[in-house]
Amino acid sequence: DIKLKHLIEELNIPERTFRSRFKKIVGVSPKYFSRITQFNYIVSIILSGEELPLSLLAAEAGFFDQAHFTKTVQEFVLSAPSGFLEGDVSKVSNFIRQMNKVSP
Fold first, then answer.
1. Element (H, E) at 65
2. What digits encode the pLDDT tens for the residues 73-95?
3. d(Cα 36, Cα 95) in Å, to the nearest integer?
4. pLDDT tens digits for range 11-57
5. Is the distance from CB of 95 to CB of 76 less than 8 angstroms?
6. Residue among 28, 39, 94 at smallest CA distance from 70
7. Mapping DSSP to helix (H, G, I), strand (E, B) and coil, where does residue 12 land?
8. Is the CB of residue 100 less than 8 Å from the CB of residue 92?
9. Closest alpha carbon to 74 in 55, 94, 99, 60
10. What's the CATH class of domain 4-101?
11. Which long-range contacts (CB under 8 A, 24 or more apart) does 21-29 make?
12. pTM, entire model
């Protein structure tokens, strides 16, 4: 769990400079990268076969609340979390296609 504020302080650069350089190198903003990382973690839990309630899965992945979790899942797989958790992991391909369009 890395706080952006602490990272910027440690690097001793302006926040705007950090965000600009991060996006240039990684291809997406730090906030979006964080959501991608959280989503990847969700997918790894689901694919491991571990069954967790939505609220616990959201907390485990580091989401502020279940609403943010729901919004992220819907954005990446175009499906509600309940459908995704019930085994509709085929929609991960939508997310992968979107990520392939992002150039590093």
1. none
2. 888 877 777 777 666 555 555 55
3. 9
4. 999 999 999 999 999 999 998 998 888 888 888 887 777 777 888 88
5. yes
6. 39
7. coil
8. no
9. 94
10. mainly alpha
11. 25/104, 26/104, 27/102, 27/103, 27/104, 28/102
12. 0.69
